[in-house]
DNA sequence: GTCTATACAGGGATAGAC
DNA sequence: GTCTATCCCTGTATAGAC
């Protein structure tokens, strides 16, 4: 009766005794290296060998720990999604206007874009085309995050007269799409996101907030 | 003195006599096949051999006509951008409200998404990460299209009190990003775009149009 | 648990026949 | 202008030493 930790992304063959030494640490290293490879080389250049180069470890470790490159990419998506959810849940819980939502988005942008975590996600999403395993894995990994954003939008809609009119899921998809699309275009022209884009989005959000307030001042 | 047609994406070695027979037709076939490969296999699976399989021609033709796979992808982006610009310029020229702009976007969506042309673009954009040649080529190819959208947004802004406040380029980027992001997510969950998303966007646009009108009814 | 070595498939690209 | 054949490199994945 082996005592495996059995993390959900554990693809290791059955073991017989105790031994996990730096295993979890190594797994983290591999995920981190994959993240870097996705950011720097894109999905097309993210091979097992490229990932190993980025992390300075042996290529075979990927298959031992994650079964395949795709398995690793799914693990990357899941860990990143969990991390992001935990990190931004508190801020999202306090959002009560579109302007504030954009402010959180901007914070996320400032903190995560330069680290390349969003770029990595867009690359994995692009890679999901033509791979059922990746598609399913990524979709699962994103669920907690979209649920979080969806709840926030629910709360925002509840403060306006449009709660019954505008489907929350569509708005969530739209927000997520806007964010990912910005990253996709930023890859093309890096200075795009380094400037006024989010400032403009904040202006637009404040504008709409103000219009909403003017249109329904007695709703609160 | 050779009589080459010298299309901008012509990578063929110098020829000595007359002969262009079905060359242009072949080039079109190759571009079309690349489009299909991008849509069906994604950028990671779009190899010269995969493209040749999709089109039923020989792999070596790609290198003869476009110099490299990347060269072909740039040609794909450029031709698609030109085609889209020509196709939607008339409709965009008549747009005079946000609602109408979204309506054109929806038409573009309905006509192009199922053909996979937008999906192909997102894949090429993803592939541009880590490839300077692709980045530059794609950026160039998109310029006429973004100029078209930018002009439309200029016109929309001119009809509101916010022309001086909101930078047109940021709004253009935002619109493009939203569109591409939708495609990226649609790859993950195909039924996302097959339904209410654009209807909701039209609702939101109409809403904002109404609010703008109410806020500044005497501007026109 | 990590490394080296290796099998084997597939990809980019070119040479040369037609 | 198109095809066949080929070179060489890179990729995935596994076996087995340590």
What labels describe this entry?
220 residues; elongated; 2 domains; 0% strand; mainly alpha; disordered N terminus; homodimer; Arc Repressor Mutant, subunit A; DNA-binding
Which percent band covers the strand fraction of chain A?
Answer: under 5%
Quaternary class: homodimer
Chain pair forming the biggest interface: A-B, 55 and 55 residues
The tally of domains of chain A stands at: 2
Number of helical regions of chain A: 9
- Helices and strands of chain A, in order, run as HHHHHHHHH
Overall pLDDT of chain A, averaged? 89
Using the alpha-carbon principal axes, give the shape of chain A.
Answer: elongated
What fraction, in percent, of the residue positions of chain A are helical?
over 70%
End-to-end C-alpha gap of chain A: 60 Å
Describe it.
The structure is a homodimer of 220-residue chains. Chain A is mainly α and 220 residues long. Chain A folds into two domains: 53 residues, Arc Repressor Mutant, subunit A (Orthogonal Bundle); 139 residues. Chain A contains nine helices and no strands. In chain A, α1 crosses α6. The N terminus of chain A is likely disordered. Chains A and B meet through α1, α6, α7, α8 and α9 of A and α1, α6, α7, α8 and α9 of B. The first copy, chain A, binds a DNA duplex (18 and 18 nucleotides) through α2 and α3.
């Amino acid at each position: 009766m082996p005592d495996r930790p059995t993390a959900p992304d554990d693809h290791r063959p059955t073991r017989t005794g105790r031994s996990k030494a730096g295993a979890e640490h190594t797994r983290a290293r591999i995920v981190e290296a994959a993240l870097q490879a996705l950011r720097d080389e894109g999905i097309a250049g993210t091979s097992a060998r490229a990932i190993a180069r980025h992390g300075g470890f042996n290529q075979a470790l990927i298959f031992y720990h994650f079964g395949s490159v795709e398995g690793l990419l799914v693990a990357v998506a899941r860990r990143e999604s969990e991390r992001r959810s935990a990190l931004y849940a508190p801020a999202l819980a306090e959002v009560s206007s579109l302007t504030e939502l954009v402010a959180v988005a901007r914070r996320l942008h400032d903190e995560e874009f330069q680290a390349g975590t969003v770029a990595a996600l867009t690359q994995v999403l692009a890679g999901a085309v033509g791979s059922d395993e990746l598609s399913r894995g990524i979709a699962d990994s994103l669920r907690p995050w979209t649920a979080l954003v969806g709840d926030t939008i629910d709360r925002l809609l509840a403060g306006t007269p449009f709660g019954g009119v505008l489907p929350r899921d569509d708005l969530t998809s739209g927000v997520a799409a806007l964010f990912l699309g910005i990253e996709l275009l930023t890859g093309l022209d890096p200075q795009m996101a380094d400037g006024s884009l989010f400032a403009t989005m904040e202006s637009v959000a404040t504008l709409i907030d103000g219009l909403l307030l003017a249109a329904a001042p007695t709703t609160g």
